[in-house]
Write a structure and sequence with these properties.
By secondary structure, this protein is mainly alpha-helical. The protein has a single domain, classed as Alpha/alpha barrel (Glycosyltransferase). 48% of the residues lie in helices and 1% in strands. The chain contains 22 helices and 2 strands. It has a two-stranded antiparallel sheet with strand order 1-2. The longest helix is centred in the N-terminal third of the chain and has 22 residues. It is globular and about 70 Å long. The relative contact order is 0.14. Bound molecules: 2-acetamido-2-deoxy-beta-D-glucopyranose (8 copies). The site of one 2-acetamido-2-deoxy-beta-D-glucopyranose has 2 residues, from loops.
């Protein structure tokens, strides 16, 4: 156990009793998407500032949990795509149901027969019960989280077992002879039924969390990690190059890339991540510029509303969901020198305005408490507060009100500087309960008033202030939007 880990324990013990009620920090949440530049991780914020110790501990805890769940591979599923190639990615359109009423049915059909015999019909929003019999979608999400947290946990603990685990998972999914995935999504979100079965362009969304893999690979390259060999790196570059080619030439890639709403935004998260892995910085910039000069322009109104996201019923969710993708594009841009944070839409919106607008809504009032946990927005609040600053303390006040223990969340680790709930460090414990308007409701930015004397803003230059973007794991599953 490293010194860092030891030093975490007293604070953690103090926090444990208080956090039992809200307990958000040790409940795993799969963020929509995330990208953390290697410079942030290697600057080891927890050694400079005790503020981030709890978040570091959460990251290690999540890495431990996720590390036990892998590895993942498309070859592990019991069925194959119509190609019969076990290396092909496959997912089924989640809302399409079989209608066997018109099918001559003299004997009971096996499930495999149903898939190719009965016509499938759309029941928007209703999951067909067998959809996760083929769970490449869930597997990829699990892979990305496990790789992301294990890579960062390696730096936090100095224990190479975490890095080795992340590398093992990357190899199994992308590179090893027996288990690799073919670099295409020809069979993502396949609509089953008689005739030729193909996927559709919405399935490209399945790869959206590739920026979590990118986070790990950049860390391995920069740290560096000897277990991430030149051979593995070269194979990964090759995989990215071939996948980029698929994205650029296959109709699904092209269509998804010009989708106006969150699908289009996430397309760029995926495309740009692979371009960076492949070393094509100029191409990565060109794609980000394409996003910010096309789709982005129509995505945010002057008041911050996202008109293309609120035309459907789950408005709290979709505002947050697209924010996650926009913020990730902003972070990827910051990493490669494309500054998007101040770019305005045609009507004068910015990412910050979109967040400010979304913050005023409560999922309880939009009937989304069950389907869109409120936490979906919290990481975006932290990200925006970190990137744009929080001079009047409104982001800190929001977080302290809705989630008093937010400094224990992994997102707090990489969204510095960000203010703490009042007295967090003085008392070594968190404010009472979730209704925290009294103790944490008026914070100033940059750690002022948090009792540290060591303002995080001083420790982290603007160049290191990257953003977080997020969403719950289940939500990510439920949320896969089927149409624009
Ligand atoms: C962190 O806390 C420990 C124990 O209170 C203290 O000795 C150390 O100086 C602090 N480190 C920083 C960077 O503030
Ligand atoms: C086919 O018919 C059998 C026997 O009537 C019935 O049990 C089964 O549910 C039917 N299968 C389908 C797919 O309709
Ligand atoms: C699909 O994968 C996810 C992530 O690994 C997992 O949480 C979920 O339980 C899986 N679903 C099924 C039905 O196997
Ligand atoms: C994917 O599908 C297209 C047709 O839609 C086909 O031309 C291409 O060969 C397929 N790619 C792979 C790698 O199977
Ligand atoms: C990737 O590697 C394969 C096999 O070594 C090779 O045939 C192919 O040309 C490479 N692709 C790219 C884009 O470098
Ligand atoms: C936005 O532009 C202003 C004025 O140039 C600058 O002070 C600020 O730092 C920029 N904000 C971000 C997040 O880049
Ligand atoms: C929490 O609330 C209890 C009862 O209201 C109070 O005695 C205690 O001091 C509070 N603790 C903190 C840390 O605010
Ligand atoms: C929560 O805070 C509000 C004021 O912001 C207050 O009206 C309400 O009574 C508080 N609820 C509890 C349970 O303390």
């Amino acid at each position: 156990m490293s010194l860092v880990r030891k030093s975490l324990i007293p604070l953690l013990a103090a926090v444990a009793s208080v956090s039992a009620a809200s307990a958000s920090w040790n409940t795993f949440i799969s963020y929509d998407n995330e990208f953390v530049a290697p410079e942030i991780i290697l600057s080891k914020p927890w050694t400079k500032n005790n503020n981030t110790l709890d978040a570091a501990e959460s990251i290690v805890s999540w890495a431990d949990t996720l590390g036990k769940q892998g590895p993942w591979s498309v070859t592990f599923k019991p069925f194959t795509a119509p190609t019969k190639d076990k290396h092909d990615y496959l997912s089924w359109a989640p809302y399409w149901w079989p209608d066997c009423s018109g099918v001559g049915n003299k004997t009971e059909l096996t499930q495999e027969e149903i898939w190719v015999t009965c016509p499938y019909k759309d029941r928007d929003g209703k999951f067909v019960p067998d959809v996760r019999l083929v769970n490449d979608t869930g597997s990829f999400a699990g892979l990305c989280d496990a790789v992301f947290y294990n890579a960062i946990a390696w730096q936090i603990t100095d224990n190479e077992d975490y890095a080795a685990k992340a590398v093992e998972f990357i190899r199994t999914w992308y590179l090893d002879d027996d288990t690799y995935m073919n670099p295409n999504l020809n069979y993502s979100q396949v609509i089953r039924g008689p005739g030729v079965q193909v996927g559709n362009h919405y399935g490209v969304l399945d790869m959206k969390t590739t920026s979590k893999i990118l986070t790990a690979i950049l860390l391995f390259r920069k740290a560096p990690y000897a277990g991430w060999t030149a051979e593995l790196d070269g194979k990964m570059v090759n995989w990215s190059q071939r996948f980029i080619k698929w994205l650029e030439t296959h109709p699904f890639g092209k269509d998804e890339g010009s989708t106006p709403n969150n699908h289009g935004t996430y397309f760029y998260n995926t495309m740009v991540s692979h371009q960076i892995i492949a070393g094509n910085t100029a191409e990565a910039k060109r794609y980000l510029d394409r996003y910010f000069t096309t789709q982005y322009l129509a995505q945010i109104d002057a008041n911050g509303e996202q008109p293309l996201e609120v035309i459907r019923s789950r408005t709290y969710h979709y505002r947050a969901y697209n924010l996650g993708a926009m913020i990730t594009n902003g972070k990827l841009g910051q990493y490669i020198g494309y500054d998007a944070w101040n770019l305005t839409t045609t009507k004068g919106g910015t990412i910050q305005k979109a967040l400010d607008w979304a913050m005023q809504f409560d999922p309880a009032t939009t009937g989304e408490v069950k389907s869109a946990p409120a936490q979906e927005l919290y990481q975006h609040v932290a990200a925006v507060g970190s990137v744009y600053g929080d001079p009047d303390g409104k982001y800190a006040a929001y977080l302290a009100r809705v989630s008093p223990d937010y400094p224990q969340s992994p997102f707090y680790f990489w969204n510095q500087p960000l203010a703490l709930p009042k007295n967090y460090l003085v008392t070594g414990s968190l404010p009472n309960g979730s209704n925290n308007t009294g103790s944490g409701g008026s914070q100033t930015a940059g750690g002022e008033g948090d009792g540290t004397g060591a303002a995080p803003r001083a420790a982290f230059g603007p160049a290191l202030t990257l953003v977080g973007a997020v969403l719950m794991f289940q939500l990510a599953r439920i949320a896969l939007p089927q149409r624009v």
